[in-house]
Amino acid sequence: MNEILESAEQMIGLISSKIWPVFLPFMLAASAYISIKTIFQLNRKTTRRSPMHLKNVIGPASVSLGAMIGTGAIIGVLGSLSNLAAQGQTNFEAIAIWALIGSVIMIPLSYSETVNSKVMKKMPREYISDFLGRWAGFIFAAAFAALYIFGFGGFQFSGIDAVVSIVAERFADTSLSEMQRYVFVIIPVILIAAVIVLSRKHSIFMKAMTYMIFVAVVCYFAFFIFFIARTNQYIPTYFARMITGMQNPVNAMFGIPLGLILGMQRVLQTAETGLGAMAMAAVEADTKPREAGLISLVPTIITVFVSIFVTSYVASYGVSVGAASYPADSIGRLGDYIRTAVEVTGYFGLVVLCLFTVLSALTTLLGSYFFLSQLFSDHENRNIIVYLIVIILAGTLAVFGLNIVFDAVDLLLFLVAALNVAALTVYVSGPWKKYRFR
């Protein structure tokens, strides 16, 4: 079984490494085109001014933020840092700058895709089917569901697994076997998610995600402020290493900096811009197009900061004091990250990270089912069965073969983003005109 997983991991990783350098220029150009057309032309001719009401922020922002933020985003960033280090980029902090550059172009796309979806009154699968064909819409829906349930869900299971392992080592002086972690950690989380899904009560989803993600984000910001206060002398070094790394990049195909490729992948993964998630979350609120677009920026900006800048800073400090080393395998780098946090912030950091990991894992798992129900709205029983099967698979691989999850996420990100951005490019190039004011 291990040989099969390793072969699959290598094949998926090879495909992803070849596709992204080709896809990235298209993604950046198309995103800029969509955003410029939407903000400066379509906005005036298809939407009216509307203020952003706080009461309307809570629902869609909670769904988006709940599905985005958490140890899955942290694991993704740590994986990119490790990949940079493996390719000879010793100043891996540069990924924060590359991600910021990507965000400047990509974050406006979050606004644009939400506005355009609200104008069309169609979710991504529907307008992709209209502009690219029915099969393209189905492929998008299947890839999106796999990305969120299997990919992002697998990351969250891995986060819980790592936290429990570290707590057991630190306080019980014991090392849990893979099977013990699977039985006593992963299975209970799966059962909790299953109970909530099987309840079939939509209001439980919304209320649970709203409260849990609020607590998780507040706790994580408190942890980072404490971490910065304890390590403020390292801040100049962090920025110096960031600039040095950007000035001396390791290039991939076509001379594109590898840091830019990895940074863009992480912007797509953590902020979910260009994936259609914002548009689907906006369905939950009775908002006007411009208001929905502005609301979509809230979780996007929060997630980019929390996931990329916070993670790269903590990891950088860990390497500088010898608490972490790169490259490393997926479990090792997450473990080093948590150990670094605990060494600096003590029990406070450990408690916060444990709480953050558990709450964000549950919100991601609940959010992934929400999106599955949006994509395949007429098949509730089948959705539940598929969801339970996939999260069991994700939880199993989180313990016994996580690296394949990481590689699968990058490939699925490409597939989902490519279809969504291509459809939006077609829309802003002409079909939008039938939605203009008469």
Automatic annotation (TrEMBL):
Kindly state which keywords UniProt assigns to this record, in alphabetical order: Cell membrane, Membrane, Transmembrane, Transmembrane helix, Transport
Membrane-protein topology: Multi-pass membrane protein
Main location group: membrane
Q: Which residues cross the membrane?
A: 19-36, 57-82, 94-111, 132-159, 179-198, 210-229, 249-268, 294-315, 347-372, 384-405, 411-430
Q: Where in the cell is it found?
A: Cell membrane
Return the similarity comment.
Belongs to the alanine or glycine:cation symporter (AGCS) (TC 2.A.25) family.
Know the name of this protein? Sodium:alanine symporter family protein
Organism of derivation: Brotonthovivens ammoniilytica
